């Protein structure tokens, strides 16, 4: 018999090479067939519910790394909660209405060529197409959920619930109509909410313009602006009441400019000769009237405003109430017309004849020319500044007063209550609480009407006879909601008022039958912001609150905010207990991914190349609170970590081929101390992982588990275990004890990693089930419990052995390097001490120190004339090449090798085992 055949060498079919892409799709099919999601829900049907409410991505375009990061973080959270025994339903959703889809649909066909019915059908089909596409990909990521029954904001039931929310707002007086300047996109010809606007660098003209004082001829108030096109809408000049204003003599004219700004202005326009002839406070100048330079019968009123600063300009602020927020309120205060001579497409109307029909954003030079002609222009220059752009079409937007519907965010203390409810929520990371607080504190009223077609209609009517707007009549509202539930919102646009309202088609004010329905639609942020009503309440029954919302940090402006405002207006509470925000995915240099730079990586590519488990491991490995980098380099590092983990699983499985936990399990108290210590370290990693999951610190789990595999297992425990597992008797207590520990490690690690490596842990679980039948799927299992008894003394002692081992390994490495030894088994370790207690302790641990270090023997002696290589506290340590012979079977050195007549090349232990095996 060859000695090799007498060893208990590992046996397993678990493959070293993962071949993830193929293996994963097999599991995916199996899960689909068995309906794993339903099985999990059933297994916890009586448990407490944990609801992570999905923020709906937009049903448009291909999925990018940001989508993958978001969905996978959610999946990891929910799978951990499932392990902890919660029932975690997950209803994914999609935002299906809005401009991006309209823009896509009108790429190939003109909106004007379609009926509204046809147009909306195209939009709907487009949304469905992308939902279908996304579902397939999200499933491939390994995300579990109600993929067959997601929530879509275009479902009639969902739409009806949104209208319920709007009804509550209307009935409680939150909604008002006003002509007010709003961000307006001339390209998309619609109003934009403040969350739909992004600021980018933009070049504008910068001009100084003179407005002549009507009573004091040849004296001019000098204004400065970067939007010359708004000059025709000027109705006032605002001064700061507390500033000092100079009256300057420049050439033959008199100019009025704030003192603080004059020096700067003079430099900019190159004026050196001037004379200060008088000074005033802003207060003293208020009430004056100036002649508008371009419009003959227009006066521009000099008014006071606190927002006039000394940061730039002249301290005399051009005020066009129809084209600016501050300007608007100044206009209201002084009873000025809210004038905006600009149409939907951003062109001057007949109200400014000189440039009628011209696009205002392209008219700056024309206005400058007009001002030059009437000698009102002092200076023109260019500035590059941060300017609002349309988030959808990326074009610059304008501020334009139109009739719009608003939610008054201060009505019924809504803003105050919302700010209060923010404090009841746990924000992760905590800094995001400040972000949402300041955004809610500073936000303007919410413009909720849009002049588009693809959305939920604003369910309002207007009476053609008495002019009344019918917005808060509950009966009419309920009728509309019923109508939408039955027919969907398409019908609103197709059917007439009689068909919608039936016998309620009468003006509640004057009784006339001439009600006209609104053709505006709702801001899509109302759609998604109402999901707490349409999804959460529907699922949770009584509890109308989700446990968690988890989205990118841009949602402080978007979904977190729209949701918390609407929920406060309707339910007087935040819609969530906890909110996690994550950063954006960037390239290795921290740059945003963009097609033009060519640094875009897609989740699809990563899955094809490395498998979904590698994508998931990448998500877990990064601290998502910051921006999250991805690159080939990073993916290589992640797959290397994956390989380490996989090899650990493989090694353990290979050594459990003859282990039956029911029969062979060694009781904790009968285990050698080294094995007990390993279980203690395992318990540590289980507890620390639990805490890290509870705190959503997934990157900590990644690092801990990786270190556990590399340091504790590969480096410390498993190497030494081989020197027992292979040569010892199969059923020796030493070997069975190690197998018991390995079994516990295998089960615990598989479970700990199951929220992250969903495919690989399931693969391991199948092998594990062959050893002992547990739950059908690891995803049906529960968080591991490690039961051990330890005391402080034990842990201290073993922590010490662990440390000493570090020193021994260093010495072994040095000997290996200078060629004195090959394998660690070639050496003996000598431990010396003068301390009797210490010696006794070491003596007891002798065999285990030997095993932990994989050396052939350990000698412990009391000596004071020590020649030591190294020391640890009061223990001196020396490593020597063994002077004895090597056993041909177990490779350990022993002075017994060569002392037996029958087996000259074996050690005592191996000789006995071989003799036994021969007898059989
Ligand atoms: Zn636009
Ligand atoms: Zn009426
Ligand atoms: Zn041997």
TrEMBL record:
L-isoleucyl-5'-AMP binds at residue 551. Residues 675-828 form the Methionyl/Valyl/Leucyl/Isoleucyl-tRNA synthetase anticodon-binding domain. GO terms for molecular function: aminoacyl-tRNA deacylase activity; ATP binding; isoleucine-tRNA ligase activity; tRNA binding; zinc ion binding. Its main location: cytoplasm. Residues 27-629 form the Aminoacyl-tRNA synthetase class Ia domain. One of its GO terms (biological process) is isoleucyl-tRNA aminoacylation. Its EC number is 6.1.1.5. HAMAP family: Ile_tRNA_synth_type1. NCBIfam families: ileS. Monomer. Belongs to the class-I aminoacyl-tRNA synthetase family. IleS type 1 subfamily. This is Isoleucine--tRNA ligase.
């Amino acid at each position: 018999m060859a000695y090799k055949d007498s060893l208990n060498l590992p046996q397993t079919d678990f493959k070293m090479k993962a071949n993830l892409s193929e293996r994963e799709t097999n599991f995916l099919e199996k899960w689909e067939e068995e309906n794993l999601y339903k099985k999990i829900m059933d297994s916890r049907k009586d448990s407490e519910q944990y609801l992570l409410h999905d923020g709906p991505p937009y049903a448009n375009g291909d999925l990018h790394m940001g989508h993958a990061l978001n969905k996978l973080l959610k999946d990891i959270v929910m799978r951990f909660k499932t392990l902890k025994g919660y029932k975690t339903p997950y209803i994914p959703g999609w935002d299906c209405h809005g401009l991006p889809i309209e823009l896509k649909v009108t790429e190939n066909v003109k909106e004007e060529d379609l009926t509204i019915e046809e147009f909306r059908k195209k939009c709907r089909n487009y949304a469905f197409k992308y939902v279908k596409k996304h579902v397939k990909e999200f499933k491939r990521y390994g995300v579990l959920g109600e993929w067959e029954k997601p929530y879509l904001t275009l479902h009639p039931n969902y739409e009806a619930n949104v209208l319920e929310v709007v009804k509550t707002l209307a009935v409680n007086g939150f909604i008002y109509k006003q002509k007010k300047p709003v961000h307006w996109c001339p390209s998309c010809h619609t109003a934009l909410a403040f969350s739909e606007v992004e600021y980018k660098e933009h070049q504008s003209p910068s001009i100084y313009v003179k407005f002549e004082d009507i009573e004091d001829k040849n004296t001019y108030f000098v204004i400065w602006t970067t939007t010359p096109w708004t000059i025709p809408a000027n109705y006032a000049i605002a001064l700061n009441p507390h500033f000092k204003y100079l009256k300057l003599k420049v050439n033959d004219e008199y100019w009025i400019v704030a003192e603080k700004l004059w020096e700067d202005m003079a430099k900019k326009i190159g004026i050196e000769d001037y004379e200060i002839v008088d000074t005033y406070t802003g207060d003293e100048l208020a009430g004056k009237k100036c002649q508008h330079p371009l419009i003959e019968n227009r006066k521009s009123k000099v008014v006071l405003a606190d927002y006039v600063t000394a940061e730039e300009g002249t301290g005399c602020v051009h005020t066009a109430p129809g084209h600016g927020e501050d300007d608007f309120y100044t206009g209201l205060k002084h009873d000025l017309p809210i004038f905006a001579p600009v149409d939907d497409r951003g062109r001057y109307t007949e109200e400014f004849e000189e440039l009628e029909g011209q696009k205002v954003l392209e008219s700056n030079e024309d206005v400058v020319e007009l001002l030059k002609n009437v000698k009102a222009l002092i200076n023109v220059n260019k500035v590059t500044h941060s300017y609002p752009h349309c988030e959808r079409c990326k074009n610059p937007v304008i501020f334009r007063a139109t009739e719009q519907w608003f939610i008054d965010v201060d009505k019924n203390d809504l803003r105050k209550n919302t700010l209060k409810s923010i404090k009841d929520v746990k924000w992760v990371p905590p800094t995001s609480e400040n972000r949402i607080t300041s955004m809610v504190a500073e936000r303007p009223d919410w413009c909720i009407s849009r002049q588009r077609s693809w959305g939920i209609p604003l369910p309002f009517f207007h009476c053609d006879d008495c002019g009344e707007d019918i917005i808060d009549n509950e009966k009419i509202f309920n009728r509309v909601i019923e109508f939408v539930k039955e027919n969907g919102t398409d019908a609103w646009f197709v059917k007439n008022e009689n068909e919608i309202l039936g016998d309620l088609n009468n003006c509640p004010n004057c009784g006339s039958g001439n009600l006209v329905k609104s053709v505006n639609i709702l801001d899509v942020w109302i759609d998604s912001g109402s999901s707490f009503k349409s999804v959460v309440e529907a699922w949770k029954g009584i509890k109308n609150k989700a446990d968690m919302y988890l989205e990118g940090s841009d949602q402080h402006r978007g979904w977190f905010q729209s949701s918390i405002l609407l929920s406060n207006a309707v339910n007087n509470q935040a819609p969530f207990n906890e909110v996690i925000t994550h950063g954006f995915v960037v390239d290795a240099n921290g740059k945003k991914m963009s097609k033009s730079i060519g640094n875009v990586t897609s989740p699809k590519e990563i899955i094809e190349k490395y498998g979904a488990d590698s994508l998931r491991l990448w998500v877990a490995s990064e601290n998502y609170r910051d921006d999250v980098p991805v690159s080939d380099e990073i993916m290589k590092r992640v797959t290397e970590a994956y390989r380490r983990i996989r090899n650990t699983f493989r090694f353990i499985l290979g050594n459990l081929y003859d282990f039956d936990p029911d029969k062979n399990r060694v009781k904790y108290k009968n285990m050698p101390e080294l094995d007990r210590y390993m279980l203690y370290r395992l318990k540590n990693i289980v507890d620390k992982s639990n805490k890290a999951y509870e705190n959503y610190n997934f990157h900590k789990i990644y690092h801990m588990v990786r270190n556990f595999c590399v340091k504790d297992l590969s480096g410390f425990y498993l190497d030494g275990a081989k020197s027992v597992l292979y040569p010892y008797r199969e059923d020796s207590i030493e070997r069975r004890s190690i197998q018991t520990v390995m079994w516990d490690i295998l089960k615990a690690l598989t479970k700990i990693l199951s929220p992250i490596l969903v495919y690989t842990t399931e693969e391991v679980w199948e092998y594990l089930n062959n050893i002992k039948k547990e739950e059908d799927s690891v995803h049906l299992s529960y968080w591991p419990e490690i039961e051990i008894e330890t005391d402080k003394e034990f842990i201290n002692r073993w922590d010490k052995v662990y440390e000493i081992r570090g020193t021994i390994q260093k010495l072994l490495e040095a000997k290996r390097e200078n060629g004195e030894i090959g394998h660690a088994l070639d050496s003996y370790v000598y431990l010396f001490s003068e301390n009797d207690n210490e010696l006794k302790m070491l003596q007891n641990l002798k065999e285990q120190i030997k095993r932990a270090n994989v050396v052939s023997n350990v000698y412990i002696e009391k000596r004071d004339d020590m020649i030591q290589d190294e020391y640890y506290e009061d223990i001196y340590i020396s490593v020597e090449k063994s002077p004895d012979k090597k056993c041909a079977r177990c490779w350990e050195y022993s002075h017994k090798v060569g002392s037996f007549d029958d087996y000259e090349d074996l050690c005592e232990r191996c000789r006995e085992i071989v003799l036994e095996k021969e007898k059989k």
